[in-house]
Design goal:
The complex is a heterodimer. Chain A is built from eight helices and twelve strands. By secondary structure, chain A is an alpha/beta fold. The termini of chain A are far apart. Classes of the chains: A alpha/beta, B mainly beta. Chains A and B meet through strand 4, strand 6, strand 7 and helix 2 of A and strand 2 and strand 5 of B.
Chain lengths: ~270, ~60
């Protein structure tokens, strides 16, 4: 039983855990957390280079900060650019194209946000952008609502996986709609990655126990008091959850059924 | 450029624009008038007055 590898669009990853690069207190903590997580796929955002005119005038220059890529070894990790912060299909498609040129692959974590407060996806625009990018040869992994119908439409549009949210991004609430995740798994012919909402290790295990093929998280690790320890906890949780799913859990019952023999009791 | 106005001395190739800005071309992507450029075309693409340029790189995200 192979509980650890994940295959999407014909590419096999050594871990079912996908982690982000945002919100870390320092690059060195991020590097250690990535190592501890055992993840192979790592998400990154695409943003404008910071250009400014130096104090005292002169020609505009890039305001130099160390590049994120200085801290990620491309021989060890597979970079998945996202379209986070995009609110229209158009913006998301442009960002995906830029991400493809900045990186080395045609993979994209597609986000088209529909609401600022919840960061819930705009399904209609998401499906449209998926269609466009699939036509252009992208491997599209859309971040979507925990809606089985939306997931089916995304799969029909050519998504290589579907990534339903467990709860709002960065909320740490855990999986809010357990049944929907299970139904999405049942309906889908592509991998299901629970993306967003994980707060702690048991949430990741639960996602895997429900049958998810993988879990994607950022804040749960980066925002933990000890991100490196949490990264390791998540690695173990994802493996444990997957093993439990494959092992097949016992049915839930209302009353007890004794584990020890009921015969041969002393004094009876 | 990246949503702000910048004065250029005259038309420049994307390669020399990046050099002027002290940007390593290997770690950015460039969009010129809404068309994303292949890195190989940085040398041959010219930026002129009124053009719209986006220069992006990877930053932390989830």
């Amino acid at each position: 039983m192979d509980s650890s590898t994940l295959t999407i669009a014909g590419k096999t990853f050594t871990s079912r855990l996908i982690v982000g690069t945002g919100k870390y207190s320092s690059p060195s903590v991020m590097v250690k957390a990535h190592e501890a997580s055992g993840a192979e796929m790592i998400t990154v955002a695409v943003r404008r280079v910071n250009i400014s005119v130096p104090r005292g005038g002169g020609a505009p220059r890039e305001s130099k900060e160390a590049s994120l890529l200085d801290y990620i070894d491309p021989s060890k990790y597979f970079l998945l650019p996202n379209t986070a912060g995009c609110y229209t299909a158009d913006e998301a498609v442009r960002t995906a194209r830029l991400g493809r040129e900045a990186g080395l692959s045609n993979w994209v974590k597609l986000e088209v946000i529909g609401d600022e407060r919840t960061l819930f996806p705009d399904n209609e625009a998401l499906i449209e952008a998926t269609r466009t990018l699939v036509r252009e040869g992208f491997v599209v992994l859309p971040y979507t609502n925990d809606d089985p119908v939306a997931c089916r439409k995304l799969e029909d549009a050519g998504a290589a996986a579907v990534m339903p949210l467990g709860a709002p991004i960065g909320s740490g609430l855990g999986i809010q709609n357990v049944n929907n995740i299970r139904i999405i798994r049942e309906f889908s012919h592509v991998p299901v990655i629970v993306d967003a909402g994980v707060g702690t290790a048991s949430d990741a295990s639960q996602a895997m126990e429900l049958g998810a093929d993988g879990v994607l998280m950022n804040t749960a690790i980066a925002g933990a008091q000890d991100p490196v320890a949490m990264a390791e906890a998540m690695k173990l949780a994802v493996r444990a959850g997957r093993l439990a799913y494959l092992a097949g859990r016992i049915p839930r019952k209302m009353y007890a059924s004794a584990s020890s023999p009921v015969e041969g009791l002393v004094g009876r | 450029m990246n949503g702000d106005r910048y004065e250029l001395a005259g038309p420049v190739t994307v390669s020399s624009l990046l050099a002027q800005l002290d940007i390593d071309p290997r770690r950015v992507a460039v969009e010129h008038n809404l068309v994303v450029l292949k890195r190989a075309t940085f040398e041959t693409t010219t930026v002129r007055e009124g053009d719209q340029v986006e220069i992006v790189n990877f930053v932390g995200g989830g």
